[in-house]
Amino acid sequence: MPKSILVTGGTKGIGKAIIHRFAKEGFDIATCSRNQEDLRRLKEELESKFPKIKVIAEVADLSQKDQVKAFASKVQAEFQPDVLVNNTGLFLPGAIHDEPEGNFELMMHTNLFSAYYLTRIFIEDMIQRKSGHIFSIGSIAGTTAYPNGGSYAISKWAMLGMTKCLREEMKPHQIKVTSILPGATYTASWEGVDLPIERFMKPEDVAESVWAAYNLSPQSVVEEIVIRPQLGDI
């Protein structure tokens, strides 16, 4: 039976790179996005390049709890993922004291609550099987305070805390839990910035780190990976 992976927010950047890395190894894929056209293109691309795998690509706004549950139900109708990558993220810059009303709620629901809900849905099957790997795609913004981080940074600090708690809880169940904390990676979030592309990390480098962490023996787990651009933070 083929292995499977669920990656939220999989049509761009780090999520897309992770999907391609695991698809290359024969994993069935489940992903979601808010954009139907992006999902269509991704599904066609994957099915053309990797014709033997199954691809589930569903429209879902994971800031909405009912859509999180609906997406999870569609995935469960096809398979129970061996790997869950909580990657969906939204970045809106701003300072805590004066960022627009609603930024906090939107980023907490998108960046944190969606990961909490999906983890709770899929982890029961992993516990029964005594196998599985959960990755949280966080950010160095979840370890280092910086100006204009605002609610985004709060959500990423919370994501790291949740992942650390989950790691402790899952030890007796043989389920691995890993935090991935990338620095500036060239994704849609950085489009239009007046910096050379060479100053950023490649999404594929983050994907390779996820793949490497997944491939350790059952006796070992990578708890946390911090990846920064060679020249340091931007």
TrEMBL record:
PROSITE patterns: ADH_SHORT (PS00061). The keyword Oxidoreductase applies. One of its GO terms (molecular function) is oxidoreductase activity. Signal peptide: none annotated. The keyword Oxidoreductase applies. Gene3D superfamilies: NAD(P)-binding Rossmann-like Domain. Keywords: Oxidoreductase. PANTHER family: ALCOHOL DEHYDROGENASE. Belongs to the short-chain dehydrogenases/reductases (SDR) family. This is NADP-dependent 3-hydroxy acid dehydrogenase YdfG. It comes from Algoriphagus ornithinivorans.
